[in-house]
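PT: before anyone asks, these are the final sequences, not the draft ones from last week. 595 residues across everything. Please model them as a single complex and drop the result in this thread when it's through.
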Amino acid sequence: MNWKTFWALFARDAHVARRNFVPLLLQTFLQPMMFVFIFGRVMVRSGYMPDSYKSLLLPGIMAISMIFTGVWAVAMPLIGEFQFTHEIEDRLLAPIENSWLAIEKVLFGAAQAVVAGLAVIPAAWLLLRPVELNLLSPVTFAGVTLLVALLSASGGLALGCSVSQTQIGLMFSMVLTPMIFFGCTYYPWSALGSFPILQKVVLVNPLVYASEGLRGTLVPQFPHVPVLAVILALVVFDTFFLLFGLRQFRKKAVT
Amino acid sequence: MPAGIRTQELRKVFTSPPPMGATGGFGPVRKRKDQPAREIVALDGLSLDVRGGEIFGLLGPNGAGKSTTVGILTTRVRPTNGQAWIGDYDVWAQQVDVKRLIGVVGQRPNLDFTLTAREILLFHGAYFGIDSRTRSTRAAELLERFKLTDRADQLARGFSGGMMQRLSIARAMMHDPQVLFLDEPSAGLDPQTRLLLWEIIREYNSSGKTILLTTHNMEEADALCQRLAIIDHGRNIALGTPAELKASVPGGYLLRVRFGSHSPELIERLKRLTGVREVRAQTHDDGDSGVDIYADRGGSLVSEVASLTSSAGVELSDVNISEPSLENLFLHHTGRSLRD
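LR: through. Structure below.
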């Protein structure tokens, strides 16, 4: 393993992200913040939603931002670079096994997702205050956050190496949008109790574990899936996406 | 001891679309599940032995297998059969060691569009573990050498095709590789820049580096390469120095003559003309027929050919004379023009 090369690849991605900072910021935060404003502020103040909804909403928004950021940060460059600009070719010729380039991408995407997730908390707090957060175990929270970040980035790797450029629109409407709406982001999983079949079906959606995990560690006063089960499910999903993504990446890297 | 390149019976069959450089086309072809995958044999047992420190050319028409060969030698294409070595390293089994030894200029631009020209060189150097001071010095030197200094701090996205090509070559040289691969290096360059490139390639070679370049440009192969392999349909059909190869064409001159019809008797009479070494009958796509005459003289033969054909009652429609060249060589070996 060649760490010098690995960090140079990482530094390159960081450099590009710094250069695109403003668009990246808008892309990550504009939509979730508008959502927070309408549902957390407008609907609550006008009395359509109870005051407690604000606290319930925050972990869901955090999950969406993290997943969206990680998937976007890894998948979009890969789709473009493999199929259109070929920019990645120079890095595929760097003196390191191809899989490490994919792992670097995942780590970088995960780092971006962590930043996005942690930035949502103060931003949403400013819009929603007061929010009732009960961070009982910072270690568990950090663990769940890292697993969610890894989920987003390895999911991005799997998608980015499987979707062709013409299917990007489809990827958003067929994969990401249903994931968000059936991802227990705007409501707790227990709220699906009166839809028993749907409640079982949504368990295949990894975002469910992201939202429920963050809910269980940030606002445990609301009903949530047990944190241990969430951690287990996240580990399984992370491993699956990472292995599948690496396989797809290796296939793309060599003809 | 400079690193050489060796391939043994390389064979590559594409079941998915081959890389763009190998087809001259764009984009993936969607294949239907119920149809068997279309197989394209890109390389059919290619063996090469490039000595360390030489400029070696792969010459052939589009689709001959040049880019596939470069792809395999640079770890980007997996061979179906056969083996390849750079120096002592097996290309497929020891990829990282091989990547350390090689610099690659691809056929299509693949620059990092979100970086400036200087950053492209600096990051490339960093991937190879070059320390930051050496990196900056070398990047500045290369930018100067390739006449890119005044655009060094602009994004590569806005560069012209020729500038991108120059920057790609500078990038490939950034880590001072032992073996440099150039896939159609002068495609899209103006004549002046092409000369600059040739000069740089020769200079790089004189510092003991091995260079493998592909081209379908005779002039370039002739001017630059110490040895050449002519490949067609994934096979090596001729190998030698440009002079040896040219000398292997009977006579050297080629007269391509076209007329309405020909008879064995006419061909026999053409063969008996002074200086004629070989006459091959050709039938063209449009139904016209003609002959390729290999001879050791050119223009002076035309009037004799004309009088012979008119006495045989055949009307000439076209005569083309070419002087000794690699083009003639290719034609002699394959029956096809490089430009077909």
